[in-house]
Each structure stands twice: as structure tokens, then as C-alpha cells.
Write a structure and sequence with these properties.
Bound molecules: pyridoxal-5'-phosphate
Radius of gyration: 17 Å
Mean pLDDT: 96
Largest sheet: 8 strands, parallel
Number of strands: 8
Strand content: 15-25%
Length: about 230
Amino acid sequence: MGEDTSGFIGENLEAARKKISAAASASGRDASGVDLIAVSKTQSEEAVKRAIAAGQTRFGENRVQEAIGKFAAIKAARGDLELHLIGHLQTNKAAEAVAFFDVIQTVDRPKLAACIAEQARKQGRCPRLYVEVNVGNESQKAGVSPEALPEFLRLCREEYGLEISGLMCIPPQTEAAEPHFRTLKKLADEHGLKRLSMGMSADFEEAIACGATEVRIGTAIFGRRG
Ligand SMILES: *Cc1c(COP(=O)(O)O)cnc(C)c1O
């Protein structure tokens, strides 16, 4: 590891960074205000190491166990990695998630918020937390509906004493993403939340135009998932 910056992952990362910069400039934003999260779910530890060799420090994973298996040794060896949980979190995995991740982007229900709060107390550490918003009000999808967000934020903050830093969303696959990105931005502004995680390989430039502070890019960096 550590040498292969000439492979396709390094090239893809470079291309993604350039597109992020261009999209930020195009909307009068500073590129430093947009973090690139490399989504490495289902990818190998070797692929992650190649991305790290190409300068990538922020990674997103969907599953707690998979992330720990892949990143435990890497993370122990390097203090500068930032690991984001971007998939559904079961309450029985909350302890491990609080211990291992730097950011949990998928806080989406009272029971989970309560478990995270309890673990944060026990462990004396709390990851940065975002609430996942079901911007399309899709019945099969996780996330708090836009209508329920004010009460859920109040609950997190006042009942559980959690600091919520941002919002994340995955717009409906069958609809244009931009209106949903605008909805998330509006909600974040209304509630004083600075972090906005939105945009994936297919639409991250649009998300940046709408105010994304972090984009989650998988296939455009690592290629198709196996
Ligand atoms: C897989 C995944 C991504 C990355 O999607 P790509 O289309 O591969 O860029 C981003 N966000 C979440 C929540 C994901 O599950």
C-alpha cells in the first residue's frame, strides 16, 4: 500500500475533486466548504488504502460491522481519518457505532437517539450527528419526514441532550434531485444547522449548487460495487 497513486482510484478522486471545485466556484462558494466523503461500502480494504494513498481521508460506510472490519487497523495507524456512518443504524449496534465512527449521518428515530445519548454518556464521546430526512416522504425509506423534523430535533436536543450538527438526505431515485436538495437546505437554515450531506455520484454537482457541505461519492471513485 501507499504507493499506488497512479491507479484509477487516484485518478477518479482527482477528477471528483476538480468537479467539486468547479461546482463550488460556479455557485460562488469556496471549495474548502465542500467535503468529499468517499463511500467505500462493499469495496476492499486494499481499495481504501489506495484512496488514502491518493490523499483521501474521509470515508463513508453503510454497515457498522463491515466498517470496523475494514477500518479498525487503518484507523488505529492513522489519526487523521474521518469515518461517516451513512447507512441505517440498528439500536443494538449503537454502542459500536458511537465508539467507532466520527460522524453518524442517519439519526432518524427517537429510540435510536436515546440509545446514542446513553452510549455517549457511558463512553464519554459522541460522534458528530446528522438527522436523516426522508425528503420524498417515501414510505419504504428511513428518515424523519420534513413535517416531523422540528419535533424530532427538539426531542434530540432537549430530551436527550444531543448536539445535532446537520441534515442528510437521499432523494427519491425516480425524481429530479434538485427540489429535494433545496428542501433540505431550507430545513437546515430554519433550524440553524450548518452541515448538509447531500449528493452522490450522479448528482453531487447539483447538490453543491444547492448548498451541500459534504457529498457522498462511491461509484465515481471506486467503480461499480461488486
Ligand atoms: C451508496 C451510497 C452512496 C454512494 O452512492 P454512489 O451512487 O455510488 O455515489 C451515497 N450515500 C449513501 C447513503 C449510500 O448508501
